[in-house]
Amino acid sequence: MAREHLELNSFQKNYLDKVRQLEPSDPFLPWNNRIVIPGAGILAVGWTNDNYILVISNDGYAVFDPINGTPKVEMNRLGTVYHLFAANNLSFEVPELNEVVYVFGIYGGDGNHVTSDGWGLELIYPAWPNSAVLLRKPSLSVHREVWEEVKIISLKRLEYIELKCGFSNNGKHFLIVGGGGIEIFSR
Questions:
Q1: What is the pLDDT of residue 4?
Q2: According to a count of CB atoms within 10 Å of the terminal CB, is the N or C end of the chain lower?
Q3: CA 86, 91, 94, 99 torsion: positive or negative?
Q4: Single pTM value for the model
Q5: Contact 77, 59 (CB under 8 A)
């Protein structure tokens, strides 16, 4: 690959400069309910049909309530979980719920980055390999600078590397998963 493919154009340089000026902070209201589920070795996460969080690790899996973090399905310690992934690693079977859940993380794809009412998440790399999650308000006003409508989410427990993010099916919750566990935000 030629080196010019790696160089930033003026728009990209300006965007990167603006992103680097943003300070991580709490998300916009109404995303004021935050819970943390500590965990190591998380392979994938997903949202059930009822908007609970499926968490999968090498040791097993569990399903949690996104509002308070209480388990809906206690940790199932199978010893191995790989046989419950679909062949393409994009979904995971949860026998206790009789449900197949689309997943994202090290296994799976990527989370849903837009809600039906316009909130958006974007995974960015302001200082690669470190990553961050940008939360975007539903509508950009023509009278405001775009940078007034976005925030980099501050993380309480997670490392800013190898993050994944996604909204729940109903758009009432979003999560960020990375080294150290999961942070869930609800409105």
A1: 67
A2: N
A3: negative
A4: 0.90
A5: yes
